[in-house]
Amino acid sequence: xxxARGGCCxxxxxxxxxxxxxxxxxxxxxxxxxxxxxxxxxxxxxFKDLNVEKSPFQRTYAAxxxxxxxxxxxxxxxxxxxxxxxxxxxxSTAQVDINLDDLEVKLGELEAELVEINANGEKLQRAYNELxxxxxxxxxxxxxxxxxxxxxxxxxxxxxxxRTHEESLDTPLLLDQEMxxxxxxxxxxxxxTGLVPQEKSMAFERIIFRATRGNxxxxxxxxxxxxxxxxTGEKIEKNVFVVFYSGERAKNKILKIxxxxxxxxxxxxxxxxxxxxxxxEVSGRLSELKATIDIGLLQRNNLLQTIGDHFEQWDTxxxxxxxxxxxxNMLSLDVTKKCLVGEGWSPVFATKQIQDALxxxxxxxxxxxxAIFQVxxxxxxxxxxxxxxxxxxxxxxxxxxYGVAKYQEANPTVYTIVTFPFLFAVMFGDWGxxxxxxxxxxxxxxxxxxxxxxxxGDIMEMMFSGRYCILMMALFSIYTGLIYNEFFSxxxxxxxxxxxxxxxxxxxxxxxVGLIKVLPTYPLGVDPAWHGxxxxxxxxxxxxxxxxxxxxxxQMNLGIILSYCNAKFFRNRLNVWFQFVPQMIFLxxxxxxxxxxxxxxxxxxxxxxxxxxxxxxxxxxxxDLGENQLFAGQKTVQLVLLLLALVAVPWMLLPKPFLLKKQxxxxxxxxxxxxxxxxxxxxFQLGSNHDSHGHEEFEFGEVFVHQLIHTIxxxxxxxxxxxxxxxxxxxxxxxxxxxSVFYDKLLLLAWGYNNIIILVVGILIFICxxxxxxxxxxxxxxxxxxxRLHWVEFQNKFYEGDGYKFYPFSFTLFDDxxx
Length: 819
What we know:
Blueprint: E1 20-28, H1 32-42, E2 46-47, H2 62-85, H3 100-165, H4 170-179, E3 190-197, H5 201-211, E4 217-222, E5 227-228, E6 235-236, E7 238-245, H6 248-260, E8 264-266, H7 275-328, E9 332-333, E10 339-347, H8 351-364, E11 372-376, H9 393-402, H10 413-427, H11 431-446, H12 448-452, H13 458-465, H14 467-484, E12 500-502, E13 515-517, H15 536-569, H16 573-604, H17 610-619, H18 634-653, H19 655-668, H20 700-724, H21 727-751, H22 756-794
Helix pairs in contact: 1-7, 1-8, 2-3, 2-7, 3-7, 5-6, 10-14, 10-21, 10-22, 11-14, 15-16, 15-21, 16-18, 16-20, 19-20, 21-22
């Protein structure tokens, strides 16, 4: 079942997914809960849902899941309350010695107590805020009435004194007229006091004036400090107002306007003598309420502290129980309703662990009957499971983002660990920038334990999870930067003196003219003399362009070799002879030959034009090469390679569909075709592989069209994919030129002014440009291009990626999941 089925490659960690098996569990009802709990601790069994036709409410443990959901709601409520109060739940590894029913009762009691405390606290706080506002009204309005009374008394005294000293003929008549006025016709004024938000005060006054047609008298006083509104609980700047009116109609209008503007009204006695007594009473009640509120807050904080001490344990227990019952709902009841029957996928190596867990569960639950574990035979495609660690997981995520590997298909991650950061570094080659990336990554790794337990932002979380991938990218960038001899675009003589010197003493500008080779070749990387010379750009362009082609052809050949490994592993000889062989011949007849020409030109120092050779290899294959000939017999070799490339196209296209048709006819007649003799013994029917058709229907036209598309895609893709690798040259050149421009036009230009202010500004701009453009944008650009080269140019040669991940029932995955 789980044994490897052979192949050209030895067993390799991560190269093939773990051998999987479909297992069946028959568990007694009394030990089902404990069995699921122990299997969750093992975390190596992915259950299949055997109750797909049932709704969630029809399943066996629907009531228990509802109960767990209610407990989760209460725990979320506690968490919100703790966050508002500034409490943090304590991490605890201690075991919870409480069962689910007791926890449900405990959480219900705590919720009821906390809700009651909150309700009482809100009522007391609202009453306190109302009394604060009432006290302000008493003080501010009292000041107004006191001022008005003083003014009226003063006017009365003035009037009496003027009456005594200034007697006239009209005065007695006027006084008699006033005294004769009917008291029933005197107008009685009423007034309303309260507070209105300061931002609404002008509109409030204007609306009242218009509604009463000006028959009111309004006074407003600004409250210096913001006031907590009793209704909303927010601090608002308010004004104390007093509105004098005449008549009930005006009063009703004013009351409605107060409600519309959210103005809080408070009673104010006309007896000025009792105002001081009211203020004293309100102050006393405020003190009492403050003391009561403080006691309530202390009680609430003590309750939240108690909850916080056990919150993590309770939350873990509730989530664990919910996951257990959710898993048990995937099992089906047998006909006797005394056992649960479940099926699931597990790695072969986990068989012993699962069996031990079943035995422990049966023993601990005092079950008279143990659980039954048996392996089922199936042709269903198993899930894909790779055992990764914190170093390999980011590279596996890069591959899985394209598609999850089919069961036991060759995993590109093994090679991506090296090739991805290397191709990134080819485009990002500068050991100064590489050091910056390295220091940033080492900072993340040094704080690994701290950050792993924290909630990080989206971008920070992405960087932290890929810290080891960035570490590899930084190390390879330092290496390629040493090869390019660039440190923020500045060359250094790290490995010895330059091999070039001036031709004679008249050589003035050694970077542009008159250089000859006088010493052995520079030992590692590009000679520093090339930088700044007139030949720098043509030389580096030629070097990086040819290097890109060599790297691209090498990686594409690796992809085709991996397709051979897949074909040998799955014992598919058709793919070996009619896919791998013609693809290798076609690719290397053209671009493999171009790679050999590049190496030969580098080794011999020939001046041959490789563009001319490759173009006329197709246009005029029989013409003499002349000065472009690199070795004897080159013309004959080119003719043979061109003929092989032409033969490889029908080799890929024609035989395979007809052989598949013949195999299908032989199976229908009851005969076995020798090429597929081994595959009939396989346990699993490996998915929707186009090369093996286990069903009875065979559409020859569909198979032929698919093979035609595959052939055209490979032939045209060989050209386009090779050209696509030239992005390595283009981005490397762009990175180098940008770095050089920033250095020359910012740093050196600022240095040349001999002004400390200009120098500091230039350095700051240089740092910002380097970080923003070269270390952020260029890093992202090179990352995306390296990603494209792996997904499209490399993986399409062998990687189907139509599998599905192994998601086991495991309690250790709780930290990675959101509620």
